[in-house]
Amino acid sequence: GAVVSQHPSRVICKSGTSVKIECRSLDFQATTMFWYRQFPKQSLMLMATSNEGSKATYEQGVEKDKFLINHASLTLSTLTVTSAHPEDSSFYICSARDAASGIYEQYFGPGTRLTVT
Amino acid sequence: GQNIDQPTEMTATEGAIVQINCTYQTSGFNGLFWYQQHAGEAPTFLSYNVLDGLEEKGRFSSFLSRSKGYSYLLLKELQMKDSASYLCAVMDSNYQLIWGAGTKLIIKP
Asked: Which residues does chain A have within 8 Å of residue B103's beta carbon, measured at their own beta carbons?
């Protein structure tokens, strides 16, 4: 149980375009989902926390107008990278908390490799 | 500020034992996690400690001392597939995970 999927797994886009990444909890309800970014050889950096039905909370330094997060249901959150630039190329990972199992469990999706050319 | 420290890289031999240390200073404490991350993949959960002491799970064990702000992950009978980065993360008073930079473990035959 507790499986989180992400789509797409890899995406290449041109500079200036927008890319949407989906994160789904497949067999549990996720009241809270997290979006991370990871550059090569660096640790995870939390970008934002999203709660179902409410606005996402962004970490300091993360542009909310550039990284649009929508958590419309208990099983789906989306991250849209708007007007992407090469410096946005990174590994984006989502994770989700299982509301039924308590506050400590956090399950990760497989990640999305974004390359902006 | 909040801080998690762990060694950048360690090397060990197949079949041996290795201990990866993690020290932390956070605003509040609601548990410490260890995750394994292979290159190009997302992290996978290894262990969770909230009370002092040793938690054993197969070849992997995790230890916590809250008074010292210290934890370690012990890997026994190392296998080549254990080559990965090991991430220490602490859940703070807001139930947010604070991540260490990770320890890259290299296993040599």
From this structure: none
Q: Smallest Cβ distance to B41: which of A104, A107, A110?
A: A110
Closest CA to A79 of A54, A49, A108, A103: A49
Q: Provide the 10 A C-beta neighbour count for residue A101.
A: 12
pLDDT tens across the length of chain A (117 residues)? 688 999 999 999 999 999 999 999 998 888 889 999 998 878 889 999 998 888 899 999 999 999 999 988 889 999 999 999 999 999 999 999 876 666 577 889 999 999 999
Strand runs labelled E in B14-69: 18-25, 32-37, 44-49, 53-57, 60-65
Q: What is the pLDDT of residues B80-95, one digit of tens each?
A: 999 999 999 999 888 8
Cβ pair A46:B95 closer than 8 A: no
- Is B3 in CB contact (< 8 Å) with chain A? no
Nearest-neighbour CA in chain A from B101: distance (Å): 5
For A111, the closest chain B residue by CA position comes to B42
> CA of B32: which chain A residue's CA is closest?
A104
Q: Are the C-beta atoms of residues B87 and B102 closer than 8 Å to each other?
A: yes
| Strands A112-116 and A10-13, sheet pairing | parallel
Q: Distance from first CA to last CA of chain A, Å, rounded?
A: 37
